[in-house]
Specification:
Blueprint lengths: L2 E5 L2 E4 L4 E8 L7 E7 L6 E6 L5 E3 L7 E6 L4 E6 L8 E8 L13 E2 L3 E6 L1
Parallel strand pairs: 2-11
Antiparallel strand pairs: 1-3, 3-8, 4-5, 4-9, 5-6, 7-8, 9-10, 9-11
Amino acid sequence: QVQLVESGGGSVQAGGSLRLSCLGSGYTFKRWTMGWFRQYPGNEREGVATIQSDDTTNYADAIKGRFTISRDNAENTLYLQMDNLKPEDTAMYFCAATTLKGQLLDASFWLNWGQGTQVTVSS
């Protein structure tokens, strides 16, 4: 079965950087669309960035120019480089996988999720 394990979350000051990682297993990683989502307490998950099997990327407007999604198919690993972090980036971040193609920032299209990793940005 599909398993996704995130790592790399933590606490940083505003303006700092973090890199999240997500290790995928149980499926052919290189063929699937991968994504990062975040969730604020009491809110639904929102799309942050997605990357398709051909490396086509898509970003939410709120993080464009600050976050970069990438993948290493040889290592079955998805990354999210987060720079110039802001307090409003504080959230639980989730990795997700799907066989669907497209921009897919709507969380309802995704069925496979990791357990999440917390990112906290202080002002």
